[in-house]
Amino acid sequence: MSDAGTGHGFGRVLVAVYAVFAIAASARSLYQLATKADEAPVAYALSALAGVVYVVATFALATDRRRLATATIGFELVGVLAVGALTLVDRDLFPDQTVWSDFGAGYLFIPLVLPFVGLWWLRSTGSKARGQAKAPSTHTTRGRNH
Amino acid sequence: MTDAVANLVALLAVGVAAFAGWHTMRRQPFSNPLFYAAAVLEIALLALLVGGCIALAGTSRDVDGVLFVSYLVTLVVIPPAAVLWGIAEKSRWGTGVVVVAMLTVAVLCVRVLQIWKGTNV
Fold this sequence. Notes:
The complex is a heterodimer.
Chain A: H1 10-36, H2 41-62, H3 66-89, H4 110-131, H5 138-145
Helix pairs in contact in A: 1-2, 1-4, 2-3, 3-4
Chain B: H1 3-25, H2 32-58, H3 65-88, H4 93-117
Helix pairs in contact in B: 1-2, 1-4, 2-3, 3-4
């Protein structure tokens, strides 16, 4: 794998954050579905879906699968915006919290910021990968020399 | 399991996060002192797991045991995973991973305390 891969450099931090959310969202939904599935089926099904999306996005970023990463992160962006808006419009639809409720306010708004950072990272590594496919380390040395 | 214990561990995690962040800012690779700091935190988390389980067995209050223990176990797993993942990255962002992990530990400590008190929803 080249240095410009999505799972290296700053990307590694991104993968770490995604992994945290993958575990948080999927573990939470498993727990919710196992213990109180009938209380808020929409919210818990959504938690499960969000968990799966984060797991796939984490995997895609870590293994440098750009197209899969773009698709899942794009879905995540749509998800957080749509669910965030829905929770503000209709409280009764989501009686219990999900990761994406209120634009991710329960998670310090990280779910709202994360897809933007993810897409930006895919863009910047994309151009880097094209520009220096044969010389992966030039950008760091250039930065050091001013 | 008291407020003081959980908050102390959370503060310790924030401290390690700041130390790791200092490495990230100065573009320093993963250092031995940072490793020891993470190791101290890991010992504290192991103590929290054991102490939490003992307290859970002894309490008469209504605590969601499965949730409580699963959080404690998750806490113990995070630092070793972060250190391995961080050392493997040779750029400045290797310690950035540790920053993220330690802040996660701090948040989880606060959540553990909420679960223990039964204030979570």
